[in-house]
Design brief:
338 residues; alpha/beta; D-Maltodextrin-Binding Protein, domain 2; 2 domains; 15 helices
Length: 338
């Protein structure tokens, strides 16, 4: 059952008058959301699920801890891990290409971009983790002290992802002409050395990459999502192919339940979680302790949660209006509930 989102309550006054259109749910009323009775209840056409993972976050911790696999093994479901992926786009490509059944709880923005481009992807579940820690960082020895100083500079971002949208939001908030800043599109493995070598002046990046870079390159924040961004315009999502979700509704539900259990454990055990993540990330104890300090919490939402989808639609519209997404999309048409 979906829970009331604390985040939404804390943002309600700010969102008043923002034009959240109830019309976006016309699709649900007309049956574009697949109702539960349409899905073959108990259907499972495979006993193996291929799950994407990256070098941080919930999937990495689940892979290292092993309980996710045990939970599903008790239901005769074998887990195969696919990855690691540097960001969500290649994870989505693996799903579309047939080498993975689920992405790795990545950003909704590249998933929407892939859907707009014609990929038959659907969102099966959502997660909001807090605090949010994506940031725009610069070297402390640079001449950049604020977002306004980015005019005329090069900033590394990942295309149609967290990095790009955060930079757009920061420039807009501080009245900096977007055209005055050079967006350098790099995936994280390439962006890190580019930032360290000074080939870009700033980097917009998420945890743990931004935390590692801040420590490794003596960098500082000039915009921090958790405190400087006034609203969420991107979420963590569990993405699959529509056909797979429909044909394997029982398996998808089992996977979702296992993720929820994993998220509860991570929320309740921040130190143990970060020790597991550090094992794979091989970063310093200082970075690890910084991440432990976030005391990160995970909150999950069903794919058809009306309140969540209203906020998600608002985010998608914001992204399309700023050309981060190529056009508008009705998000309720691209979710499957099980």
């Amino acid at each position: 059952m979906s829970q009331k989102p604390d985040f939404f309550a804390s943002r309600r006054r700010m969102l008043q008058g923002a034009g959240l259109a109830a019309a976006s749910f016309g699709a649900a009323a007309s049956g574009l959301l697949l109702p539960r009775h349409v899905l073959a209840q108990g259907t499972r056409n495979t006993d193996t699920v291929r799950v994407g993972f990256g070098r941080g976050g919930l999937p990495l911790i689940a892979r290292e801890r092993g309980e996710f696999e045990k939970t599903l093994a008790a239901q005769d479901i074998k887990v195969e891990w696919v990855g690691p992926f540097p960001n969500h786009a290649p994870s989505l490509q693996a799903v579309v290409g047939g080498s993975a059944d689920f992405g790795f709880w990545g950003s909704t923005t590249p998933a929407l971009a892939a859907i707009i481009a014609g990929s038959p992807l659907v969102f099966t579940h959502f997660n909001i983790y807090s605090p949010r820690s994506t940031a725009i960082i610069v070297r402390k020895d640079s001449d950049i002290d604020s977002v306004k100083d980015l005019a005329g500079k090069k900033v590394a971002v990942n295309r149609s992802g967290l990095g790009e949208f955060l930079l757009v939001a920061a420039l807009e908030k501080h009245g900096v002409d977007r055209q005055s800043v050079e967006f350098v599109y790099l995936n994280p493995p390439d962006a890190a050395p580019a930032f360290g070598q000074g080939r870009v002046h700033a980097w917009s990046m998420w945890s743990p990459g931004v935390d590692i870079a801040r420590d490794q390159y003596d960098a500082k924040d000039i915009f921090f999502e958790g405190t400087d961004l006034d609203f969420l315009i991107d979420y963590s999502s569990l993405v699959s192919l529509r056909r797979f979700a429909v044909d394997n509704s029982a398996l998808v539900r089992a996977v979702i339940n296992a993720w929820q259990a994993e998220g509860r454990w991570v929320s309740e055990h921040p130190r143990e979680s970060e020790l597991l993540a550090q094992k794979e990330g091989k970063y310093s104890d200082a970075v690890r302790d910084h991440l432990i300090g976030y005391q990160r919490q995970h909150q999950f939402y069903e794919a058809d949660d009306p309140q969540f989808l209203r906020e998600f639609q608002r985010a998608a519209d914001w992204l399309a209006e700023r050309a981060i997404l190529p056009k508008k999309v009705t998000v309720s048409e691209h979710v499957v509930r099980v």
